[in-house]
Amino acid sequence: MMIGTHHDINSQGNVISTDVLVVGGGCGGLVTALKAKEESNIDVLIVDKANVGFAGQASRAGNGILGFNNNTDLEKYMEYHVRNIGKYLNDQNMLHKMTEVNRNALKQLLAWGVKVTTDKNGELGYFNHPAGQWQYLGIELNMTNTLKKRAIKSGVKVKNNIQITALLKDGDAVVGAVGFNVLDGSFYIFKAKAVVLATAGCGYRSIRMFTGRGEGIKLAWDAGAQMRNAEFGNFFEVVSTQMGESIYGTQNFIYNQNGENIWDKYVTWDSPDVCPELLLGMEKEIREGRGPLYVDMEKVGDSWKAMGADVDDMDGLTRMFPDKLKWMKRLSEREHMYFDPGKKPEVKVGLHGNTGCIRVNSDMATTVNGLYAAGTDTWNGSAVGGAVPNPGLQRGNGLMNAVATGMFGGPAAAKYAASTTQGNISSSDVEKAKVKTYAALNRESGANVREIIINLQNIVCQVKYNLRRSEENLLEGIGKLEELKNLLDTVKIKDFHELMLCHEAEAMTHTAEIMLRSALERKESRGFHFREDYPETDNKNWLKWVLADNEDGKIVISTEDIPINEYKIQP
After folding, report:
1. In this structure, is residue 435 part of a structural domain?
2. Domain total for the chain?
3. By Cβ atoms counted within 10 A, which residue in 13, 183, 249, 509 is the most buried?
4. Which residues contact 538 (CB under 8 A, 6 or more apart)?
5. What is the pTM of this model?
6. In this structure, is the dihedral angle defined by the CA atoms of residues 420, 421, 425 and 426, taken in order, positive or negative?
């Protein structure tokens, strides 16, 4: 039966109808849902495989957000960003829109009840960044839970513990999705006039800070959406060797066994944060035998020490809120084993990932009708940041990106949904998606999904594939990913949790392949993309965006010239 009615598909699973379906209950998804609901009063549903309000990245890192005070020269900020951070690969129109919405976004958070730094008069309060081009504000750690409460009060519906495994289309438009309950395995069919993906990009399960598994990217890809700038989804960081966690604010105080400062040795520009030059320098030092590297905690600046203090009250402005202080207190005993002044914790480079390559326009619409995306899923794909992964040399910018893109995408998706009728859902398409969803559960024997994830990490986390790249190494890495993809078709799992892992592994492996194939195409070095065989930046031939398209299931890479002559800021 090719044309499915509500009655037809009702026998195949639990059917839920809505106007706008938001996949992902973190910051980007919640802001999207709130804006869609409050501006249009249509039906909005958020679905998350965990718990809405406690999902995504903001619930772990929500202690600072990028801001611009009334004295910030936004045009000067734009020029600084394009020249020094984005390296001319920004979509400058999108960057301008993001910059202009910043203050309204912060005010909107306050209106929704989110605790953000304010002065004694209740106005937004800012902390200056040393680069001098932007500011920061403190923000409550549990901001997503605050947003969830506001969303439910506004009439947004929430569905937890559902992993979305496929999008449904009617012709060239997305009209819904399917998924399963990760606790009991029950199957769900969602009818929607518009779908928004906000699944936090892809962090490859490598470091706990970033939680995305690439599921939104895989969903968009399978629906025919184009990807862009995936080669810049390789966010490496300074990581404690003992803890496997990032050590923020210590990048200027890393030393080799000869006592040489790594930052001073390799970073020749006034970088505002951890940069490729530092990371490549750290790798070089270790490779050439001057490791292990360490952080000298006695020399760490006062700004880092303030982050670890019980109180941080400067000029009457609170940087830390009570929830953050409680969280830090719980971690302090473990952290102080390594980070107390006088100690020298060993550090290395570690991959966060943060790949978010779904191409979107300034309204967060993908290249597929009815499909939108927000948050980290779109960071590279919107080209707002240029040649850097999220948060792009600006702490707090990832959080602001999630808020701003939600403010853009929510109203746009709602407007689209209000102007269209619900498309037909084919019961045969539902059945195909259902069979694929549970395929690993029905095999008698096969590969171990946890081993596949470890093998994936052993590829994407290696410096030679993802930081110090070359044609030879990239081709080698792509070959290994293709082998993993074949193994994924043979996975045998024992329960619904492992079924969730299986879909995560498939999404992460696919995202990694798009990233490495895009890196293979870009034959130059720029920003976080470094090629040993093309070590120079080439503005003559490579002011281009690298694109990835789904052609009959194959990844086809091409390029698009940046409209640099139409932009104000040029090399």
Report:
1. no
2. 3
3. 509
4. 523, 524
5. 0.95
6. negative
